[in-house]
Design goal:
The protein has 145 residues and is α/β, with parallel strands linked by helices. Helices cover 43% and strands 28% of the residues. Helix 3 crosses helix 5.
């Protein structure tokens, strides 16, 4: 079976990315390892007293992101594709590449979001970082308007 790592960010184009990954997985009889990397500073805010940490804010955000991951996982499974998910906090590029290695991934499927800069308009900065550092193929799906 082909192992596919699918990072998601819950942006407005996530559904298009998931649809593309489902189609790709079906063609290859693949298993999808869904991953979301949350920033490690979710509970921090800057206020009158400087930096403050609010653990309840972080816990609520993580809980909401897990609900979203579960929904995407169930959607993938409903297409008869094996799927499991992971949510981690930290630096997205490093965690995604580490996860791909741990899962013996054959592919990483990423989307082209178009954020900033000429190259990034077509590929996206995280996607750019993954494609530059990955030792396995990265399938870039065009998911911009």
């Amino acid at each position: 079976m082909i192992n596919i790592v699918l990072p998601v960010d819950f942006g407005d184009k996530t559904d298009q990315l998931v649809d593309g990954a489902i189609k790709f997985a079906k063609q290859l009889n693949g298993r999808i390892y869904l991953i979301h990397v949350a920033p490690s500073d979710i509970g921090f805010a800057i206020g009158d007293m400087g930096f403050q940490y609010f653990p309840e804010v972080e816990a609520n955000e993580i809980r909401e992101e897990l609900v979203q991951l579960n929904k995407i996982e169930q959607r993938i499974i409903s297409h008869d594709i094996d799927c499991e998910h992971l949510l981690k906090q930290g630096l997205a590029k490093d965690i995604i590449l580490e996860h791909a290695k741990e899962k013996n991934a054959d592919y990483i499927v990423m989307g082209s979001h178009g954020r900033s800069g000429i190259y990034d308009v077509f590929v996206g900065s995280l996607t750019k970082g993954i494609t530059k550092s990955s030792t396995i193929p990265v399938l870039v799906l065009p998911i911009h308007d």
